[in-house]
Amino acid sequence: MARQMSPERQREWQELRAFFDFWERHLFPSFMPPDDPRHPANALERIAEKLGPSKALQGLKQAIHDIVEQYGHLSGEEIRRADTALAANGLLTFSEVRRRYWSKYRAVLKRGTIRNETEFYLLKGIADDLTSEVSDEERAQISTLLSEYEAHRS
């Protein structure tokens, strides 16, 4: 029998599942037809039906980590386009997903300095995403890091 999920985990499951489905079907579709049972979004649904959402959430989080790692190189413009499409559909933005699930983001904040353009665009995307659940303190830290990096780059 499937384990009952807390309301927080249930919300996380719904948000990530919707993000994953849109990402895989519309933003960066795989080579598989959308109705193919092996398509990642369909496979996720089968796993959820078989094992329950609680177990499927574990695999979904790994898939989200993979997306964030695989697409971490996107340019600022590509991120804005993805974020706009996701937000227009009432979904988590890529910037918000990166903020929540990418350890590189937390490492930059902990280190307190931006080392390269990849890190700069990671933080810039999060700062520009006004739907992101960033605390005022964290948003201020990001702003400071971005300003310092831009000053050193000039």
In brief, what are we looking at here?
By secondary structure, this protein is an all-alpha fold.
Helix and strand arrangement:
Elements: H1 7-27, H2 40-51, H3 53-70, H4 76-88, H5 94-101, H6 103-111, H7 117-128, H8 136-153
Helix pairs in contact: 1-3, 2-3, 3-5, 7-8
Number of strands: 0
Q: In percent terms, what proportion of residues is strand?
A: under 5%
Low-confidence spans: pLDDT under 50, at least 5 residues?
Answer: none
Mean pLDDT score: 90
Q: How far apart, in Å, are the first and last alpha carbons?
A: 59 Å
Biggest sheet layout: none
Detailed description of the structure:
It is a single chain. The protein contains 8 helices and no strands. Helix 2 (40-51) runs antiparallel to helix 3 (53-70). The chain starts with 6 loop residues before the first helix and ends with a helix. It has 154 residues and is mainly α.
Question: What are the salient characteristics of this protein?
Answer:
mainly alpha; 0% strand
